[in-house]
């Protein structure tokens, strides 16, 4: 008898800890969704509330009216899809996923000031493992740990079992009730809410987890659409007939990463970050604007003929890039990549990505190498080519450059000139001076690399007309206005993310060897505004490529050519 009583006691104890789905303590799916969404709206959207309520006083009734209306409207927009998709079996996984996503999104927005719009999500999805690992920090792990605790609590909530008719009726009533409250909230604060969203369009991408869900869906839909898009027909193109005394061309295009123009001493920066380039006859373009604020946008844009105004990812992928066109007309084109790839720009040309290889070098640690390896590999290419007749060649060096937030990992110790430097991933844990010091050290290293490429090319002037073009893909925020890194929507992006350095070198005396160029004219043109829109057409003009896609007005060389070809 005692064993029976003991068994009943054990069962009662189990039931007290794990109530059955029909027990009064079991929750409905609707109740669980409402509670979790309410917590996300209040505690998971701190960047949104901080930006939205800036300058408002809680001593005024209008502020409370706006806050309550906005909170109810945001909750409504999240609750309705969850009630339409969530069942007793699926609601827990959905909520757990959204809690974790919200924790990571809030961390990124609070730490770096970014907004999670479709371009930023596309950039994130294309990020390689090495780049992503550099963003892992104690604060991120702490946020994820809190999210996992909440997820565990969600999973432990017992959910009520109901006949399907009763469950359907309860769900319909919940949807009607929530929608009524949401519509009422929008009407209550419509004028204030709509005005705020219209004047600060980026705010919608600070609302989590809706921002991540919406932006990810947009990216996937656009990628699917592009996969079925018919490529544009190739435009007729050919190399112009060479002049009798013209040598083959060897042009190196260095694509910088996250370098902003205002930190180059060539552009007037008070620190000497370009000591080596200052000693060489380079042509500096101090007023150059990027096509985008992320590699995912800027790289395809700058290698396309579309220009920023006509650019879309779909159009760029459906048309021929600059390097593809150069390869088609018979030039040798080589792309060496120390970044996260060429974003399909270099499909079909000679291509090496260092992170795809196991390279044993003092310049490499794990899958990440310093940009000095680009210069070494360029030297090997030139050395091999010395055993064959010279031919027109373009080499693209895609830098790791100043890719953040781990700026201190972008240069060897001998270039750590500016001290103290920030060596942390969490930039907000460093002073602004420390962040700028690390960033400037990386610029100093880039200065050395560009100068090394120039010296290497100068040694080839007997065989080639040699040249070098350096231009960065986008800039970087280093704490100005509370922003870090890059990727802000173009319409509201600060100058720090848009103004980029562009530097040319065209032979030992500036432009010697490039047929018919007026150096003084080119230097005057360099002092005027330029942009990524000019790269495609300027390189076609410089290399004498004839094609219907060439636009003379976007060719920086065209006004300075004394003997123009019939392009």
TrEMBL record:
Entry keywords, A to Z: Cell inner membrane, Cell membrane, Membrane, Transferase, Transmembrane, Transmembrane helix
SUPFAM superfamilies listed in its UniProt record: Alkaline phosphatase-like
Domain Sulfatase N-terminal: 250-543
Residue ranges constituting the Phosphoethanolamine transferase N-terminal domain according to the UniProt record: 77-222
Top-level taxon in the UniProt lineage: Bacteria
Gene Ontology molecular function, alphabetical: phosphotransferase activity, phosphate group as acceptor
Name of the protein in question: Phosphoethanolamine transferase
Lineage: Bacteria, Pseudomonadati, Pseudomonadota, Betaproteobacteria, Burkholderiales
């Amino acid at each position: 008898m005692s064993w029976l009583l003991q068994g009943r006691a054990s069962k009662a104890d189990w039931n007290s800890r794990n109530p059955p789905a029909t027990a009064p303590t079991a929750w409905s799916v609707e109740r669980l969704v409402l509670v979790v969404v309410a917590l996300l709206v209040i505690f998971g959207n701190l960047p949104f509330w901080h930006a939205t309520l800036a300058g408002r006083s809680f001593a005024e009734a209008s502020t409370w009216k706006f806050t309550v209306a906005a909170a109810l409207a945001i909750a409504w927009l999240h609750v309705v899809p969850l009630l339409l998709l969530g069942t007793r079996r699926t609601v827990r996984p959905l909520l757990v996923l959204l809690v974790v996503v919200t924790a990571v999104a809030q961390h990124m927005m609070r730490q770096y000031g970014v907004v999670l719009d479709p371009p930023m999500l596309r950039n994130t999805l294309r990020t390689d493992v090495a780049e992503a690992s550099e963003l892992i920090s104690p604060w991120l792990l702490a946020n994820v740990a809190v999210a996992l605790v909440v997820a565990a609590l969600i999973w432990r909530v017992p959910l009520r079992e109901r006949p399907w008719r009763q469950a359907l009726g309860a769900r319909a009533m919940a949807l009607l009730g929530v929608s009524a409250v949401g519509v009422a909230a929008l009407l209550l604060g419509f004028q204030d809410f709509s005005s705020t969203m219209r004047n600060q369009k980026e705010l919608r991408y600070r609302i989590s987890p809706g921002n991540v869900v919406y932006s990810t869906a947009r990216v996937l839909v656009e990628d699917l659409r592009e996969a079925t898009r018919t490529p544009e027909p190739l435009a007729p193109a050919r190399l112009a007939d060479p002049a009798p005394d013209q040598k083959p061309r060897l042009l190196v295009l260095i694509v910088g990463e996250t370098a902003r123009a205002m930190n180059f001493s060539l552009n007037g920066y008070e620190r000497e970050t370009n000591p080596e380039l200052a000693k060489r006859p380079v042509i500096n373009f101090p007023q150059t604007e990027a096509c985008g604020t992320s590699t995912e946008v800027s790289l395809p844009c700058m290698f396309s003929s579309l220009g920023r105004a006509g650019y879309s990812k779909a159009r760029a992928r459906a048309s021929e890039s600059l390097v593809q066109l150069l390869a088609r007309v018979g030039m040798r084109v080589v792309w060496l990549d120390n970044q996260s790839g060429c974003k399909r720009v270099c499909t079909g040309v000679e291509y090496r990505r260092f992170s795809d290889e196991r390279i044993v070098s003092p310049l490499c640690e794990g899958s990440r190498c310093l940009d000095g390896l680009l210069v070494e590999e360029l030297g090997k290419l030139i050395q091999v080519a010395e055993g064959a007749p010279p031919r027109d060649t373009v080499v693209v060096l895609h830098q790791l450059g100043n890719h953040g937030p781990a700026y201190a990992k972008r240069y060897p110790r001998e270039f750590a000139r500016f001290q103290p430097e920030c060596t942390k991933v969490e930039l907000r844990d460093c002073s602004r001076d420390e962040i700028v010091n690390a960033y400037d050290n990386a610029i100093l290293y880039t200065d050395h690399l560009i100068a090394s490429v120039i010296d290497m090319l100068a040694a080839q002037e007997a065989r080639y007309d040699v040249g070098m073009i350096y231009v960065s893909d986008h800039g970087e925020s280093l704490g100005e206005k509370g922003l870090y890194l890059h990727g802000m929507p173009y319409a509201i992006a600060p100058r720090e993310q848009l103004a980029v350095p562009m530097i040319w070198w065209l032979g030992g005396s500036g432009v010697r060897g490039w047929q018919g160029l007026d150096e003084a004219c080119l230097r005057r043109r360099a002092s005027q505004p330029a942009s990524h829109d000019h790269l495609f057409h300027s390189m076609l003009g410089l290399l004498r490529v004839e094609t219907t896609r060439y636009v003379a007005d976007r060719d920086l060389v065209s006004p300075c050519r004394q003997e123009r070809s019939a392009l």
